[in-house]
Amino acid sequence: MTTRRTNRGFTLLEIMLAVMIFGMVVTAIYSSWSAILRASRAGREASEDMQRSRIAARTIEDALVSTVMFTSNPGLYSFLADTSGDFAALSFVSRLPPSFPGSGYFGDQIVRRVEFTAEPSPSGELQLLLRQMPILQTNVFDPDEHTIVLARDLSAFMIEFCYQRGNSYEWVEEWHLTNQLPKLVRFALAFGKSPNGTGKPKSVTVRAVSLPSAAVPRDSQGAVGPGTPAPPQDGPVNQPANDQAQRPNIDQRFGAPVRGIGGGGGGL
After folding, report:
1. Quick one: how far is CA 197 from the chain centroid?
2. Reading across the β-sheet that carries 80-82, which strands appear in turn?
3. Does the pTM exceed 0.70?
4. Of the candidates 123, 154, 147, which has an alpha carbon nearest to the alpha carbon of residue 49?
5. Which of 62, 69, 92, 128 could bridge 151 with an S-S bond, Cβ 3.0-4.6 Å?
6. Where are the domains of the chain?
7. 3-state secondary structure string, the chain?
8. CB 162 within 8 Å of CB 171
9. 192 — phi, psi (to 5°)?
10. Residues 6+ positions from 146 with CB-CB distance below 8 Å
11. What per-residue confidence (pLDDT) applies to 217?
């Protein structure tokens, strides 16, 4: 008596069902992994943007608190500001610490002119740029050689100045007294666009910085050599008043001011 053994394989339906289950498992794993990667990338980009905004604000603050000016050489030490739009430009001379960005390029030339401007990148987005040059080489030095990108995706860079009018102080949006230093400088840096379609920036940094230095008068600088012309008088004594009807100030643009002076203040 013989026993017949029958070897049965998988049917086509069973193979297709197994492939379908395997594909569903792989798809679930891939979706979870993609979600983890997207969340990690978004968190990393947000952290990088926040860090860049902090570095940009701290760099502007460090440069402002180190400002120097000698009235016997007004052409070298002029305080220049262009605040005609949402993207300001600022240029002045500072005695910069070794920790200031780019100091390694200049060695012991610690007194340098610094410039903060908003310019488009090759991809079209606006970025905050830092240029600096030695104070005695402004005519021969190429500032673009050591240009530093402080922050990207810039949506606003606004500056205001504290001016004393009689016994009161007020914020003005323009500074015409290029041979004088303001008492306080307030600036606002805004980055990105809100994803909810409101058009508001993702993040806003507002800081008010007190300038501890003052313009050194000509008589306090000693001999300046024969034939040195006297510094020109810089415009009228009174700073022009704000034209609030034409352009909103920082408070009107970004809401209520941040109280305090120095580490993030906005109001007097």
Report:
1. 23
2. 80-82, 89-95, 111-120, 126-134, 148-151
3. no
4. 154
5. 128
6. 51-222+233-254
7. CCCCCCCCCCCHHHHHHHHHHHHHHHHHHHHHHHHHHHHHHHHHHHHHHHHHHHHHHHHHHHHHHCECCECCCCCCCCCEEECCCCECEEEEEEECCCCCCCHHHCCCCCEEEEEEEEEECCCCCEEEEEEEEEHHHCCCCCHHHHCEEEECCEEEEEEEEEEEECCEEEEECCCCCCCCCCCEEEEEEEECCCCCCCCCCCEEEEEEEECCCCCECHHHHCCCCCCCCCCCCCCCCCCCCCCCCCCCCHHHHHCCCCCCCCCCCCCC
8. yes
9. 70, -175
10. 102, 105, 131, 132
11. 65
Alpha-carbon distance 1 to 142, whole Å? 103
Q: What is the pLDDT of residues 24-38, one digit of tens each?
A: 999 999 888 888 888
The Cα–Cα gap between 54 and 205 comes to: 8
| pLDDT value, residue 35 | 86
pLDDT, mean over the chain: 77
Cα separation, 128 vs 183, in Å, equals: 24
Instruction: For the beta carbon of residue 60, count every other beta carbon within 10 angstroms.
Output: 24
